[in-house]
Protein 1
Amino acid sequence: MRPIVTVFATSPDRGRGLARDMPVRWALEEAGQPYDVRLCSFEALKQPEHLRLQPFGQIPTYEDGEVALFESGAIVLHIAERHAGLLPRDVPGRARAVAWIFAALSTVEPPIVERAMASLTERDTSWYAARMPLLDARVHTRLQQLANRLGDAEWLDGAFSAGDLMMISVLRRLGGSGIIEAYPNLGLYVARGESRPAFARAFEAQLAVFRAASAG
Ligand code: GTB
């Protein structure tokens, strides 16, 4: 069975490829695995049928006939374990690549999301002007640490891996903020990821969904 991934019928990111189906699509493209998508409205995400697959009423989910999964990190890891090219073959290298998936989602992403949420929802509050510099500083701390580790390397640990795929997906959420520009090696790292043919295919596929919804 071709895997089925749930995605937004109309993504709030307006086709910028920032929703979390994007790393799943990208991993499937890197793996050369064709897949289908099931488009979900916000209302459909909260219905029992979807909640059986995703208890929090979110996208993405993934079904391949063998396993039904939620959580983009778990899905990317599952794809990486089933197909060549996204995880090193040696056990230590594999473990380090998995660590980078966790680092992306649990160490680098939280301050990025917190900052994005504040700038979306707290702009009109009395504390916004005082809070934003603190949130910016937390993002900068993580980016500086990541930039120090990456240095002049092409990828985080040897060959491109699912860890890079997830880290680049997380860093893309800073697009338009002007923040990543302070770290030239991270900017180049994101650009290297985005220039991969598999990324381009995944990006075009999610954009096509958004364009079709906008046209119809
Ligand atoms: N931890 C889960 C995972 O990694 O799979 C989080 C999944 C998640 O956050 N899903 C979001 C969702 O379904 C979409 S991706 N939200 C609907 C809901 O909760 O009702 C998050 C997202 C949304 C929008 C943008 N954007 O507009 O730029 C970026 C990212």
Note: The chain has nine helices and four strands.
Protein 2
Amino acid sequence: MLDNRQEFERAQRVLVGGVNSAVRAFRAVGGTPRFIARAEGAYMWDVENRRYIDYLGSWGPMIVGHSHPKVVAAVREAAGRGLSYGAPNVMESELAERLCALFPQVERVRFTSSGTEAAMSALRLARGFTGRTKILKFEGCYHGTADSLLVKAGSGALAFGTPSSAGVPEDLVRHTLVARFNDLASVEALFAAHPDGIACVIVEPIAGNMNLIRPEPGFHEGLRRLCTAHGALLIFDEVMTGFRVALGGAQQVLGVTPDLSVFGKVIGGGMPVGAIGGPAQIMEMMAPLGTVYQAGTLSGNPLAMAAGLATLALISEPGFFDAVSQRCARLVAGLNEAGRAAGVPFCAQSEGAMAGCYMLGRPPRSFEEVQAQDLERFRRFYHLMLDEGVYLPPSPVEAFFFSAAHGDADIDTTIEAARRSLAAVA
Ligand code: KE4
């Protein structure tokens, strides 16, 4: 068996950067990515058989924990009936019915195989429905890798300092307008500059790809008002927040209803699923009923639907979100206490089972504030925690993810590891 370093050297000979998604390459924190051999509950084990308490959770999907017996059983059972049909199957309808029941303004759904595809298709739908060309996004928000959205994006694009990707034609991105999260005046100015020109505003309702940044009171109500007044569609990208901050996503927490919602991650339970949801009047602009084309070979894949259905059944159980939110809050309280004890500008916060920790004295409220972190101190902290067997997302601009599988002993172990690690970087 090769160790992590040897596996990484091997991977880099055949995979670009040794990875299949840029953020996995540890470029923001340095060092060698861990090659995971297996995962169960709150834990992952690497090829050196080192166990980690996992707060990556596959970047969000694993809210019930890894290899949950009911999810694995559902996938196994589906696999016995075929891996993919390329034709309708009833589980697609079942999962869509669950979505429509949870989100009142969602009357029609279209499944995809990733959040990127769902966000990209939602943009096309908004442009087709409104007949307009411009889209408005927010600096630091990330909506996957569709060309129009790789402009001042978050997540790995931000971490690597390439928020606006090479290879995206200038005459395309000129239709992408960028405002500042939590700055309604920057949105109003763009609407004033482009009257009747903006097809949609797409936003992470609670930002997670410039680390967790909460919306200021009134921000989303303002977006809702401006979009309605200007005939633009408001799109909530709930790929990360959906079924994570609450069963009804950020729109339930915020009490603001978008025109279209984009989902992913938890809705697939670890299998490839994205989704767009919205009123029939808008959604039915999409093929085969309308003229906005959209398709995907593995969209609605039976195994992915089975994993999503099993996961949604588990998180819909009474008390699930109260329990997971309370335990996540206990972890965050312990991390904040560890920062105070170490005398380090370090803090953490959470919303439901989504959390963020920062090398800052108080939670950031903007893209600029999150950028003010002491990156070298974060890197040292990150690796000290990894060496303690605590796996956080390998970036200072990513949220971290709690699960129902994280027990009190895991929380206590994590807090103690943070105390030692923060003391060491003080
Ligand atoms: P995917 O295409 O990676 O399934 O989804 C893209 C996406 C869209 N919208 C939001 C709000 C997202 O957070 C994401 C994906 N998030 C990143 C982590 N910040 C996925 C990790 C990765 O890129 O490997």
Note: The CA atoms of residues 264 and 274 lie 4 Å apart.
